[in-house]
From TrEMBL:
Keywords: Cell shape, Cell wall biogenesis/degradation, Chaperone, Cytoplasm, RNA-binding. The lineage of its organism: Bacteria, Bacillati, Bacillota, Bacilli, Bacillales. One of its GO terms (molecular function) is RNA binding. Its main location: cytoplasm. A probable RNA chaperone. Forms a complex with KhpB which binds to cellular RNA and controls its expression. Plays a role in peptidoglycan (PG) homeostasis and cell length regulation. HAMAP family: KhpA. Forms a complex with KhpB. This is RNA-binding protein KhpA. GO terms for cellular component: cytoplasm. SUPFAM superfamilies: Prokaryotic type KH domain (KH-domain type II) (SSF54814). The gene is khpA. Transmembrane segments: none annotated.
Amino acid sequence: MKELIETIVKPLVDFPEDVRVDSIEDDNRITYQLSVNKTDMGKVIGKQGRVAKAIRTVVYAAGSSQQKKIFLEIGE
């Protein structure tokens, strides 16, 4: 799943080397924390959050086969 998130985000940003995905796994959920360069935040979030929503939609759909709920947090 980390590779999927990186594959989606890296072409969108100016500093792909700063893209980092960490995962935190609990009993019934997996939280992926996406970190990008501060100047690339607007590109990842998009106008009115449309890009972020699209990324989340793809990640949630890809993770729907797993037994755990998947969350994606976007931060600097």
